Amino acid sequence: MHFSTLWIQVVREHDPLGRDVEVFRRHLYSKGKVGPTSKGSAGAELVDGLVMKEGDYKVVKTRFSAFFATHLHSFLKTEGIQDLVVIGVQTPNCIRQTVFDAVALDYPSVSVILDATAAATPDIHQANVFDMKNIGVATPTLQEWSELCKQA
């Protein structure tokens, strides 16, 4: 079996005036403030240590889910990608919503790497992992996932 990966970097990026921000976040962009994820701001950049390489793909989103109002689903289908592995921060927000949308879109294999995702507290993280497991999402550790890849 041939196994290959495609790195897709999903970033939250907003209009500096906050015109595309959710209602509950608009106060962060009001009265001339540059919001925390305004295009060109540090909050809309990759974290230190992550770099885009040749062949990587970037998706810009304005909501929790990487699928909502983006072209991610179309891109994945065009590339023939069916198995998704999700990592990142804010398990109850971006990770959870992206994963629930992936399941709703009938991706046959969706995994969340437990120790490559995080929330404000371990309890919040575990509660959301529990919910994702209940809809059929695999939740291996990075070590467990790496071992699975070696076997594939």
TrEMBL record:
Pfam families referenced in this protein's UniProt entry, alphabetically: Isochorismatase
InterPro entries membership: Isochorismatase-like_dom, Isochorismatase-like_sf
SUPFAM superfamilies, A to Z: Isochorismatase-like hydrolases
Limits of the Isochorismatase-like domain: 16-139
Family affiliation: Belongs to the isochorismatase family.
PANTHER family from the UniProt entry: OS02G0276400 PROTEIN
Name assigned to this protein: Isochorismatase-like domain-containing protein
